[in-house]
Amino acid sequence: MKELRIDHEREERCGFPEVVFAPGKTVEQIVAAASEIYAHSGRVLVTRATPKDFEAVRAQLQGACYHEQARIISVGCAAPQHPAGLIVVAAAGTADMPIAEEAAVTAEAHGACVQRLYDIGIAGVHRALEHVDELRAARVIIAVAGMEGALPSLIAGLVSIPVIAVPTSIGYGAHLEGLAPLLTMLNSCAGGIGVVNIDNGFGAAELACRINDPSWL
């Protein structure tokens, strides 16, 4: 295995150490990277991890936790440390929850206070409208949706705060594995929306944390 090139300066630059992306890596590479990051920083996240990856990491790092729906391994990530602002993670449907949970768990690992509002898609628009006060109380919202991807536009039309839109690969044929909601979100007529890549709950959370409380960077 080639020597690891861990970016140990990332925590100083960005407020959180380098995160290990598991797909494409061997179990040995995942464990080695996670162990080095943890030894240097006292905390580490592994995203898109499998149960097999978790068992290997847990054997090496005491206190490792597996967030099954989010597919994230966390070690040494404490309760909220930066409660000044609130991040709301809103998901359109139950099928979008794995990506929403990736965002929520990542934000919590970064020390943010997170509120989850799930299954509030526009097919039953009253479900979203029931939570207007909670949406408006946030400092930033992550809106996760598949199918046609309309939820971020609806939310952005109700609030004055930034909305980070996350298209998911959940939908029928012409949904094109997330391309349809991605284009919907990019073409939204509502202001204040930023869009991340398909299924990128992690990236949405990273951005949300910096918007939510930049003082901790």
Question: What is the overall silhouette?
Answer: globular
Helix count from the secondary structure assignment: 9
Mean pLDDT across residues:
90
Main sheet summary: 5 strands, parallel
Distance between the ends: 33 Å
User: What percentage of amino acids are in beta strands?
Assistant: 15-25%
What would you note in describing this structure?
It contains nine helices and nine strands. Helices cover 36% and strands 20% of the residues. The chain has helices at 10-14, 27-41, 51-60, 97-109, 125-129, 132-136, 151-156, 179-186, 201-212, and strands at 20-21, 44-47, 65-67, 72-75, 82-91, 112-118, 140-145, 163-167, 193-195. By secondary structure, it is an alpha/beta fold. The longest helix has 15 residues, at 27-41. The chain has a five-stranded parallel beta sheet with strand order 6-5-7-8-9. Helix 2 crosses helix 3. The protein is globular, with a radius of gyration of 17 Å.
Supply the key terms.
single chain; five-stranded parallel sheet; four-stranded mixed sheet; 36% helix
Helix and strand arrangement:
Layout lengths: L9 H5 L5 E2 L5 H15 L2 E4 L3 H10 L4 E3 L4 E4 L6 E10 L5 H13 L2 E7 L6 H5 L2 H5 L3 E6 L5 H6 L6 E5 L11 H8 L6 E3 L5 H12 L5
Parallel strand pairs: 1-2, 5-6, 5-7, 7-8, 8-9
Antiparallel strand pairs: 2-4, 3-4
Helix pairs in contact: 2-3, 4-9
